[in-house]
Amino acid sequence: MSLKQAKEINKTILFSYTEKVALPHPLPTYSSVIRNSEDYFYWKDPQNETIIIGIGNVLQIVSEQIDERFHLVEEKWDNILENAFIYDSANQSGTGPLLFGGFTFDPNNRKKPEWETFSHATFFVPEIMITLKEKESFLTLNVMVNPENDTTILEHLKKQMMNILNRKEQTSDLLPAIIEQEEMNPKGWKESVSKVVSLLKDGYLDKVVLARKMRIKFQQKVVPEVLLNHLLEQQKGSYVFSFGLDNDSFAGASPERLVKKIGENVLSTCLAGSIKRSGDANQDQALGKILLEDKKNRHEHQLVVSMIADVFREHCREVDIPDEPTLMKTPDIQHLYTPVKGKVKENTSILHLVESLHPTPALGGTPRQDAMKVIRDVENMDRGLYAGPIGWMDYRGNGEFIVAIRSGLIKGNEAFIYAGCGIVADSNPEDEYLETKIKFRPMLRALGGKEDE
Ligand SMILES: C=C(O[C@H]1C=CC=C(C(=O)O)[C@@H]1O)C(=O)O
Fold it and tell me: What ipTM was estimated for this complex?
């Protein structure tokens, strides 16, 4: 199918073209692709197996719906794909066209002005996309074809992308100077933790995750590419993402997968329970042992395992969950970690799994709805996309969503960064406060902020 033939259909449809390409530079990353784009995304998994970079926005799917947002995105994407012409000369070895985006943490919460750019579901199909998958690279060009389109548009796009990829000049790796760095009401946050601990002691709730925010003001606008480069350099073992829309940018380095689906194989991650790291290897190992044996942290973790296991048992033919957690270590923190695998039943889509899993008790709490209400009442904050599911799904139903933690929103010369932690009945406000300080560090360091000891 050529673009010319697609045009003859005489209605507006998605035309997508994918080919395998040889990249001009042996660079591990192509973060410069996002430079000067208003709408873009960059996505990398911890193993560097999949890197997806998209720029331009040919088609957007947004929703401010509360209960129907997952379903709505799925329905619209299915409709688009039903009519689309997809020419995949790479024989499905890349991803082909895909939808990238995210869901806010809690659509029932009041929206704060800093998050006005992002809807409760915000997804788009990029105009130009480059994918690195298992060391092969692919170029995907997407156009909405209508009778007025110039048939040479694909050639223009391809040339544009090759020019971008051939770019030699580097951006400076400097961020502007910070003029203000402020923790938002730390005293009030510790009081909220105490309040939640009393509720938990009353016994009708098991766990509530409370988060807080920092605001950083820069002398000039922050360049998203520079922040992305810092995250890529500093957080190699995490998912690194940057999601740009209308000049705002949501970026982070999350260690936490929500769900990955490739064919019938599905994977999720239980990540909850944390302890700091030490520069001394023996000390670091000893801290890990303390975490593995700590009753409070094991309880926090087990609530996440039980919930994810329930969702997997409902939607999968086979489920594989280890009996005991192991440790996941990032540069600043170590977590209790249990991977969950399954073979999903037919006709269960990735968005259906996302909807069932979000929010796990690693971000919300147990029981889910009561915990969400407590968060809304005591956190006094709009999490926006922080702690929400963000990711991609391709035209064959494969995809991956992560939990957008260790993240922040960049708005011109301001950044808002977020960190939270699981509160259980024997939590101590000061310890939880210190834990959130550690969880701010990946974003703070990448932004050039002052990290407390
Ligand atoms: C809510 C966050 O972390 C979650 C993920 C891993 C460990 C967590 C914990 O130990 O509390 C949190 O549940 C955050 O980083 O903002």
Answer: 0.99
Torsion region of 203: left, alpha or beta (phi above 0 gives left; psi -120 to 50 gives alpha) = left
| Domain boundaries along the sequence of the chain | 3-166, 178-223+248-446
Could you tell me if the CB of 209 is within 6 A of ligand 1? Answer: yes
* CB of 365 shorter than 6 A to ligand 1: no
* pLDDT tens digit sequence for 275-289: 999 999 999 999 999
C-beta of 101 in contact with ligand 1 (< 6 A): no
The model scores a pTM over 0.80: yes
**Which member of 256, 300, 355, 379 is catalytic?**
256
- 372: CB partners within 8 A, 6+ apart: 106, 108, 359, 364, 365
Q: pLDDT per residue over 41-81, tens digit each? A: 999 999 989 999 999 999 999 999 999 999 999 999 999 99
CA–centroid distance, 406 to ligand 1, in Å, is 9
Residue 194 CB contacts under 8 Å (≥ 6 apart), including other chains: 429
- Cβ atoms of residues 154 and 19 within 8 Å: no
405 in ligand 1 pocket by Cβ < 6 Å?
yes
pLDDT digits (tens, 9 = 90+) for 208-219: 999 999 999 999
| Ligand 1, atom 10, residue with closest C-alpha | 273
* Residue with CA at minimum distance from ligand 1 atom 13: 362
CA 356 to CA 337: how far, in whole Å?
20
| Atom number, ligand 1, closest to the C-alpha of residue 256 | 5
Architecture (CATH level 2) of domain 178-223+248-446 = 4-Layer Sandwich (3.60)
How far apart CA 224 and CA 228 sit, in angstroms, is 6
